[in-house]
Amino acid sequence: MSDNRKDIEKKEARLEHGVERTRDRRVYSPAVDIVERNDDILLTADVPGVDEKSIDITLEKNLLTLYGTIEADIPDALKLGHAEYGIGDYHRTFTLSDEVDRDRISASVKNGVLKLVLPKSERMKTRRIDVAGEA
Questions:
Q1: Which of 40-49, 52-61, 75-84 has the lowest mean pLDDT?
Q2: Residues 6 or more apart in contact with residue 120 via CB below 8 angstroms
Q3: How many CA atoms lie within 13 A of 118 on its CB side?
Q4: Beta carbons of 126 and 99 less than 8 angstroms apart
Q5: Neighbours of 128 (CB within 10 A)
Q6: Is 0.85 surpassed by the pTM of this model?
Q7: 20 pLDDT band (50/70/90 cuts)?
Q8: Average pLDDT of 109-134?
Q9: Strand, coil or helix: what is 75?
C-alpha cells in the first residue's frame, strides 16, 4: 500500500548560545506558513493543544515572538505507559520589516491553529497610479 501523506514531525526549537530555559520541558518550533496578500501578510502556525489563554504573543522592537504552553492531560489516578506524541511548549520568533503596521496586528487561535494578520503599512501597499492623457 502506498502512503502519499506527508509525515509531520515536530522540531525542537533551538536555543541561541548561552541561553537557558526556566521550565524543564521540551520546546518545539511550530510549523508556519506565511502568505503575502495585497493588504497584509497572513502567518499561520500549527500549535496543537494551545488556546487563547495559553499563548503569549509579544512584539518588542522588530521581534515578534510566539510562545504557547501545553500541559499534559493525564488524569491524576493514571500513569502514562507509552507516549509517541511529544508534549511540550511552542516558541518561535520572527523579525518584522518596516512593511508591517505594528499597531494593527491581530491574532486568533482555533483548533490548534494560530492565525496572525500583519497589515501592511499604508506607504508599503501597492497602489495604482492613474495616467492622464495629454490634450
A1: 75-84
A2: 39, 40, 41, 99, 100, 101
A3: 21
A4: no
A5: 5
A6: no
A7: low
A8: 87
A9: coil
